[in-house]
Design brief:
Layout (H helix, E strand, L loop, with lengths): L12 H10 L4 H6 L1 H12 L7 E3 H6 L2 H10 L6 H12 L21 H9 L5 H7 L1 E3 L5 E3 L2 H32 L1 H9 L4 H11 L5 E5 L4 E3 L2 E3 L4 E5 H4 L34 H18 L3 E3 L5 E2 L8 E3 L1 E4 L1
Antiparallel strand pairs: 1-11, 2-3, 4-7, 5-6, 8-11, 9-10
Helix pairs in contact: 3-13, 5-9, 6-9, 9-13, 11-13
Length: 321
Amino acid sequence: MPPMVFINEDPPDHTIHRALVSRMFTPRRVKEIEDKVRAFCVACLDPLVGSDRFDFVVDLGAELPMRTIGMLVGIPEAEQVSVREHVQRGISSEPGQPMAVDKDHYFDGDKFAEYVDWRIKNPSDDLITELLNIEFEDSTGVTRRLAKEEILIFLAVVAGAGVETTGRLFGWMGKLLAENPDQRRAVLNDRSLVPNTVEELLRIEPPGPHVARYVTEPLEFYGQTVPAGSAMLLMLASANHDERRFPDPERFDIHRKDGSHVAFGYGVHFCLGAALARLEGRIALDEVLNRFPDWDVDLPNAHRAPTSTVRGWDSMPAIVR
């Protein structure tokens, strides 16, 4: 595992490296950009008003997260589409085949090299500029700045996570609210239900359904010993459907009281971008309802994403009524 892929590191490296990027994703920082994120969403949806159909993924899920993370990171708008396509190629797989993983390019940040070089000469209020200038004490006790190669890996991790997972949420939003029109009408008429609706979407159809971990010491689970060095796949989606925690867990219910799902993980690896993802989900749902209060989904023409990394749709077309 290359250094700086903080989502796959243990403390103390994980603690140090996560802290370097976390300041760009605090609830306060996310709140500051809310108006800009809403403006991005409006720009995606307004051209579609008056049409009899639109696509929750192609028209919204593929656009809004890309523009938002591009703004935060410091990727020029003209280059954001190519970054999204680069990320998607990296996680796509062929049916029945394992993902192609190159251990020497596990997170390939070469795509961002030109942006980093440009920001060295043109600093701004974005993550690239922040990473270029920050000084920190690494796990060996040395105070230093990040090397360019380390910054590139950071950017690959952040861009990949920020574009793909949130974008998949919008496909589930279109599908589940079409299948539950009574609940769609409820949130349409009472926008205070928007945040809880987003939480229930995340619970019942988490875009990141699992995380993998290595066991560093022998552990006992349910009477079985798991040896050190074992690989474990933790099914977050299964935990979100645990009947011991959620009454009638297979039922989509925007009025559900217990929102303590694990769609964003748990503990020290809790999703760094959770506040941003929630903000984008709330804004997207609010603005869709403002323009398209009633829709059906065209499931025969919907397409699932060919990847085992995230779970969702490449296309979720909706027919406006």
